[in-house]
């Protein structure tokens, strides 16, 4: 059996290992030196849990963690806490994003405890987009904390077993802490030093913004290595398929922080099937960045193209034959399902018998 599966319950947390902060699969894969793959789940505008499960099932057997986003772009969707509750119930390994825009430190600390109690092993700390970026700009922003102070807050809860107030925790959260990086936004020279600050605050892994400029990212990683940061933190590069040249131009003009070189737009424009070329472009970028020293994995963001994630991971060959956890029914669940079927059949038989008896004994 895989070392990343609990022998008693495939969906349950793993036994703790020395030096590990969590009992999750993602941390184990990274600390073993294997190339990790995470993906982003597009949150539904729905209260139907099946909408989450259908989207998560696409990633089965291909990723080591699934990001549950927290109202990204300042637009409201199902909450990251709700998505994590559903995913952990089924044994998935969510990465719960927490943005500081909508909650103060009291609410956030409570969410961290609740998430850990549900089985969430990974937490991603974000400042969050301003409310003016979303479709409800009249909302009141909070920003009691930012990504740095949020990292420190969760680290203190985990390592010191106490709230920010100093009050003791009886059981601290066991979580693997992450943050976001953007090597493609100015000031470029400052970006490696900002990563250093996040590591000092508590970040153990980071996921980058979309990478479409590999030479620029390669230069960033050179500075990261010069500072020795690649030995203190696991770096996952953000990648994703681009649907068309038109989409690339729109993103470049309207989404701050995403850098798309002219060469990418030109390549897409010259393709007969731009969507197919966008997928191949993503695979090519993965194959380039995986060779960069200090890169520990990729974070696949396939917005409204989630069906391509398995193909992208498979065709890139980054897993090297390794098979991440896949959702499968446990023996206990199979027995329960069979028992319920028997009960339903029995009820139907009893109801038929009662109906026949009533027909033969009219009042």
TrEMBL record:
Gene Ontology CC entries for this record: cytosol
Keywords: FAD, Flavoprotein, Oxidoreductase
Functional pathway: Amino-acid biosynthesis; L-methionine biosynthesis via de novo pathway; One-carbon metabolism; tetrahydrofolate interconversion
GO biological process: methionine biosynthetic process; tetrahydrofolate interconversion
TM regions (residue ranges): none
Compositional bias of kind Low complexity: 7-21
Cofactor: FAD
GO molecular function: FAD binding; methylenetetrahydrofolate reductase (NADH) activity
Recorded catalytic activity of this chain's protein: (6S)-5-methyl-5,6,7,8-tetrahydrofolate + NAD(+) = (6R)-5,10-methylene-5,6,7,8-tetrahydrofolate + NADH + H(+)
UniProt-annotated stretches for the region Disordered: 1-22
Keyword Flavoprotein carried by entry: yes
Pfam families listed in its UniProt record: MTHFR
Family the entry assigns: Belongs to the methylenetetrahydrofolate reductase family.
The name this protein goes by in its record: Methylenetetrahydrofolate reductase
Organism name: Sinorhizobium glycinis
């Amino acid at each position: 059996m895989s070392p990343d599966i609990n022998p008693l319950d495939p969906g349950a947390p793993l036994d703790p290992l020395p030096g590990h902060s969590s009992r999750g699969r993602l941390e184990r894969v990274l600390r073993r030196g294997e190339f990790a793959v995470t993906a982003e789940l597009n949150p539904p505008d729905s209260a139907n849990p099946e909408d989450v499960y259908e989207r998560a099932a696409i990633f089965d057997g291909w990723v080591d963690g699934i990001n549950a986003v927290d109202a990204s772009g300042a637009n409201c969707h199902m909450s990251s806490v709700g998505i994590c509750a559903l995913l952990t119930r089924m044994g998935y390994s969510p990465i719960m994003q927490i943005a500081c825009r909508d909650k103060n430190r009291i609410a956030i600390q409570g969410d961290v405890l609740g998430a850990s109690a549900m089985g969430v092993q990974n937490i991603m700390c974000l400042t969050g987009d301003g409310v003016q970026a979303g479709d409800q700009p009249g909302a009141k922003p909070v920003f009691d904390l930012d990504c740095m102070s949020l990292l420190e807050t969760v680290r203190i809860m985990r390592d010191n077993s106490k709230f920010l107030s100093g009050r003791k925790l009886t059981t601290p959260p066991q979580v693997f802490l992450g943050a976001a990086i953007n090597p493609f936004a100015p000031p470029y020279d400052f970006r490696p030093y900002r990563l250093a600050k996040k590591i000092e605050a508590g970040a153990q892994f980071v996921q980058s913004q979309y990478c479409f400029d590999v030479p620029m990212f390669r230069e960033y990683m050179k500075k990261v290595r010069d500072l020795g940061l690649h030995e203190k933190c696991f770096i996952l590069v953000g990648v994703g398929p681009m649907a068309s040249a038109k989409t690339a131009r729109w993103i470049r003009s309207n989404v701050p922080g995403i850098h798309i070189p002219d060469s990418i737009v030109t390549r897409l424009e010259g393709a007969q099937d731009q969507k197919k070329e966008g997928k191949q472009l993503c695979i090519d970028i993965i194959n380039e960045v995986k060779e960069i020293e200090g890169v520990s994995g990729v974070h696949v963001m396939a917005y409204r193209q989630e069906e391509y994630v398995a193909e992208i991971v498979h065709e890139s060959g980054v897993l090297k034959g390794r098979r991440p956890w896949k959702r499968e029914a446990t023996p206990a669940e199979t027995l329960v399902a069979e028992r319920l079927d028997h009960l339903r059949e029995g009820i139907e038989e009893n109801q038929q018998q009662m109906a026949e008896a009533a027909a033969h004994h009219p009042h």
